[in-house]
Design a protein that fits this description.
Blueprint: H1 24-54, E1 58-61, E2 65-74, E3 78-89, E4 92-103, E5 114-117, E6 124-126, H2 127-131, H3 133-169, E7 175-187, E8 190-199, E9 205-213, E10 227-232, E11 240-241, H4 253-263
Antiparallel strand pairs: 1-5, 2-3, 3-4, 5-6, 7-8, 7-10, 8-9, 10-11
Helix pairs in contact: 1-3
Length: 269
Amino acid sequence: MTSPDALFPDRDIKIKRTGVWPGLFRYLGALMLIGLAVFFAIWQGPGIVDDWMIAQDPVIVEDALITNGECSISRAVFVDCSAHVSYEVKGKEIEKDIELMFLDFGSGDYAVDVVRSEAQPAKATLSLGLGMLWNRTITVAVIVGLLAVFGLALFRSGLIQDRNRRLARRPSRLTPVAVPVTQINKVVGGSVVQYQYGLGKKQQPLLTTSRFRKNEGPLWLGNDGMTALAVLPTNASVPILLDNDLERLDLSASERAEVQARLTPREPA
């Protein structure tokens, strides 16, 4: 193959088709994850805050009535308990719906009492909720935190993706880059190719994907089917994978033929 510096014409070149998905899909995924984080915070947060207050001056309600009490286990460790409790304080009837979520590797039944705050009688919970208070707090904090972090990371990756699409569509000098292809998946109407374009701060591989149409594929370098040719537009951080016929580049027929000839290894004389 010829020198990378002499591979393309000496001018700015536009990439007509990037094969990169719009960032919109990642924004939607980010909103879904952040929405789930908000849901968990609203669902469990107020109850946990109330239970920390109840734990300061707990009083067991001996004559409380518990109805519709049940616990279910999902994924073998997440326990979700709910109950409706009613009790009387100084002649006033108080009713409350209680929902608890925590981690527990056991699967037995739970014996519970109703516990209220002495200072604020309307605040009530189950003794199980107080016993698992740290467990619940950490579990919900971790779930909310992870969902929020992954959501923000997905949103950021969408911004980077859209930026790379914009830069690719502007005519610029293209730098050829050889990239390892890690996976090819068939999808409706074509294929999705995953490739590595560098290493992160912790030396983890940086991966991205490119969508190809039917009867289209990467422009392979060599015959091993492991390394393909990509181009890095000016100021971009992620290279764009080229197709085998170079149709993604805004080249004339003669320029395209010349680039393909430069990519073809010459037989030794």
